[in-house]
Amino acid sequence: xxxxxxxxxxxxxITSVVACEKILPGxxxxxxxxxxxxxxxxxxxxxxxxAGDVAFNDEIFTSQNGxxxxxxxxxxxxxxxxxxxxxxxxxxxxxxxxxxxxxQFLHLGGPQLxxxxxxxxxxxxxxxxxxxxxxxxPANTGLGFLELVSDADILAMADPNDANAxxxxxxxxxxxxxxxxxxxxxxxxxNGKYIHRFGKKAAAYxxxxxxxxxxxxxxxxTSTFQPKDVYTGLNIDPEVSDVTVHNVVFYLQTLKAPxxxxxxxxxxxxxxxLFIQAGCESCHRQTLKTGF
Length: 292
Ligand code: HEC
Ligand code: HEC
Hints:
mainly alpha, two-stranded antiparallel ribbon, binds heme C
């Protein structure tokens, strides 16, 4: 009797495996996958990649684990869905003034608008007189490579006064570093300021900087790095652990760069030539090398 049961169980398992193979699509080819890790990660690194993936894509914040009190969204993945680009419903709004002096609206909740709030709290409003822009979330694949492009290479591409008269002036963004950031060894600072590179207007130095700010400004989550609560402006206990922050940073650092499809298709090649001819390449470089 026992034997019979085992045999039935085996037969059931086999039929379900066969059935699944028929129903489920096969593993997609590499160039169809956006959210995989770079090759060559160790077992331990893969574990950290997965932990970062879960924290980034699946961890939804609520009032129980620190959300808000004011916020824009409840998880990284709700704006960067599938690690890809966002859409008009997942934009961020930042406000300030037109001239380039220090933002006059920092004491009124600037620069970022937290347009949602937990029950009982008031959402932020764009203050009278402020100008504002909406930003669409970019894809966040391949950023680990960009993090490692050297300052020397960025400076070699810079052209602040448009010396080559192509109508395009690339200007590196120098800012002071927050205290929790250790600069790269090959950094080339100027008067104590460092070239920043992530986010719009290159406002973040590295992926740790961007991640810590995103937790704080987008979800209202404090960390040991950025303990200031967006609502009260007071320092409070961390709502996300250092381990989770580092896992998310590692995840972003090891998300592979997207692979171009149909590279040898004549139409694709023609488009590539047009891209170069039209001068798109002066900003969208075909090749960048990591600097270590
Ligand atoms: C409300 C939507 C929203 C949420 C939530 C959000 N982001 Fe973003 N993210 C954006 C937008 C918009 C930008 C581009 C503007 C900017 O920040 O400068 C961005 C930029 C980034 C960048 C820089 C990409 C680049 O190419 O420079 C990274 C990395 C990033 N986010 C990671 C995160 C992480 C990690 C979280 C969660 C802790 C998160 N984001 C949560 C909207 C969001
Ligand atoms: C002066 C520099 C510059 C030039 C020249 C330039 N771009 Fe861009 N491009 C950018 C920047 C910066 C962004 C990101 C803007 C943003 O996300 O707000 C961008 C974004 C894009 C995007 C969206 C990418 C994404 O993931 O959302 C596409 C597509 C694009 N550019 C195509 C082109 C094409 C085609 C040309 C040539 C006809 C071109 N660009 C020329 C700077 C440039």
